[in-house]
Design brief:
The protein has 250 residues and is α/β, with parallel strands linked by helices. It is 38% helix and 24% strand. The chain has a single domain, classed as Rossmann fold, CATH 3.40.50.10900. The chain is built from 6 helices and 11 strands. The strands form 2 sheets. Strands 1-3-6-7-2-8-11-9-10 form a 9-stranded mixed β-sheet, sandwiched between helices. A hairpin with a 2-residue loop joins strand 4 and strand 5. The chain starts with 6 loop residues before the first strand and ends in a 9-residue tail after the last helix.
């Protein structure tokens, strides 16, 4: 914990492995990071390593399966050596800087490298799941290329808590990369989460994740979207068939 910081990491278990890879899963566009990292945490059966507490977080109580838990948690496992950062709440702007500094001061000495995930709006259905990467070091850039991940073309900016974490890692010489995935900007997007796991995280971190559950969720969301579209179409047809009342303008 940095001096005068309102945010700190509270360790609840000792780390059972050396130099794991941290994978960030904080809520963002399309909830891609949150969905992907939740699947990874469950599939790898990672144990809770600690929590992050902050005066800047909203005063809420998170719970799961009838039990209260801290909203922002860190999990870790030995085989593969992976650490995940998850949150049940969106990180408010007031907490971004202190959370990022907490990760760098309290956690960075425990992990070897960090992989951040960021959603960006897809302009069409065909773009959903496209992934590009940005690295802070030559070695990680090489790792991205070797994993078959396209490097981001041209210039750009990563904002929010993910951008703050990436920038702080860069300035503190902590090896880090961000995987930017095209996703639906309006609803949770398990299809994009599945794509970033299969096409980027699996070859980069060298683990195997069963994403069938995410495929089923994506198919269900697509089915619901089609049903809503059909209902809207039927409603519009009914409106068009109704005779216009005198003095009614459309």
């Amino acid at each position: 914990m940095t001096p005068d910081s309102s945010t700190s990491f509270v360790k609840t278990t000792e780390l059972g492995t050396e130099s794991p890879t941290l994978i960030e899963g904080l809520p963002g566009l399309g909830l891609v990071a949150a969905i992907a990292v939740d699947q990874i945490t469950k599939q790898l059966e990672l144990d809770q390593h600690g929590t992050i507490v902050s005066d800047d977080f909203p005063p809420v109580a998170a719970f799961d399966d009838g039990r209260v838990r801290d909203a922002v948690r860190v999990y870790a496992g030995e085989d593969p050596a992976v650490m995940t950062l998850q949150s049940d709440i969106p990180i408010p702007p007031a907490a971004v800087d202190s959370l990022s500094q907490c990760v760098l001061s309290d956690l960075a000495e425990e992990f070897e490298q960090a992989i951040f995930l960021a959603g960006t709006p897809a302009e069409s259905e065909d773009e959903i799941g496209e992934v590009v990467g940005v690295a802070t070091t030559d070695d990680l850039e090489t790792a991205l290329v070797d994993a078959g991940i396209t490097l981001a073309d041209g210039s750009g900016v990563v904002g929010g808590v993910t951008g703050a974490l990436l920038a702080d890692c860069y300035h503190d010489d902590v090896p880090a990369a961000v995987l930017i995935v095209r996703s639906n900007p309006y609803i949770p997007d398990p299809a994009a989460a599945r794509a970033v796991i299969e096409e980027a995280l699996e070859p980069l971190v060298e683990f195997d994740i069963d994403t069938q559950e995410l495929l089923e969720q994506a198919e269900e969301i697509q089915k619901q979207k089609q049903q809503i579209a059909e209902q809207l179409k039927q409603y519009q047809q009914q409106q068009d068939q109704q005779p216009a009342m005198p003095g009614m303008y459309q």
